[in-house]
Amino acid sequence: MNIRPHFHDCHQIIFIVKGAADFCVNNKKLSAAAGDIAIFSRYENHSVLGCSDEYERFVLHIDPFVVNQKSPVYSLLTDRPVDFCNIINVSSYMAEITDMFNRILIEHRSGVKLSDEMERLLIKQLLISVYIRTT
Questions:
Q1: Given the DSSP bridges, would you call strands 36-40 and 11-18 parallel, antiparallel or unpaired?
Q2: Which residues are 3's β-sheet partners?
Q3: Rounded to an integer, what distance in angstroms lies between the CA atom of residue 39 and that of residue 73?
Q4: Partners of 20 in beta bridges
Q5: pLDDT in tens, 28-84
Q6: Using CA atoms, how far apart are residues 11 and 19, in angstroms rounded to an integer?
Q7: Cα separation of 99 and 117, whole Å?
Q8: Residue 78 CB neighbours (<10 A)
Q9: What is the CA 108 to chain-centroid distance, rounded?
Q10: To bridge 5 with a disulfide, which of 14, 17, 47, 54 should be the other Cys (CB 3.0-4.6 Å)?
Q11: What is the rounded CA–CA span in Å between residue 87 and residue 53?
Q12: What's the per-residue H, E or C state across the chain?
């Protein structure tokens, strides 16, 4: 799978569960594999250069209007340092991250009262979990 350079009107997180993929971000080629999370800010130009045959992933789009700019946890999405790497390895706690993505997906599909609020809380929990392990 090759996807031409593009951007989103939202933040995007890709969690690779199986296989591998190559991304191009800011003219840099980045390789990611199972246990890696790729994070792209709103309007950040990126492309997918190729994926392995057994490529499985979760894709999460985060509305930029629910991001609290003042909270340090959202710095993974906004206000990043110049040397920020879009690929973060989370393989040492892959089961925990997989569980979080599954819970977000269940909430998203449920449509029950306040499921959107629960989904936002789970996304924040995910970002906190990644943030504390990368700083």
A1: antiparallel
A2: 48
A3: 13
A4: 33
A5: 899 999 999 999 998 888 888 878 889 999 999 998 887 776 788 888 888 887 888
A6: 23
A7: 18
A8: 14
A9: 16
A10: 47
A11: 20
A12: CCEEEECCCCEEEEEEEECEEEEEECCEEEEEECCEEEEECCCCCEEEEEECCCCEEEEEEECHHHCCCCCHHHHHCCCCCCCCCCEEECHHHHHHHHHHHHHHHHHHHHCCCCHHHHHHHHHHHHHHHHHHHHC
- Using left for φ > 0, alpha for ψ between -120 and 50, and beta otherwise, residue 129 falls in alpha
CB 41 within 8 A of CB 74: no
What is the sign, positive or negative, of the torsion defined by CA atoms of 33, 34, 37, 43?
A: positive
Mean model confidence pLDDT for the chain: 89
User: Measured on CA atoms in the order 30, 35, 41, 43, is the torsion positive or negative?
Assistant: positive
> Which pTM value belongs to this model?
0.91
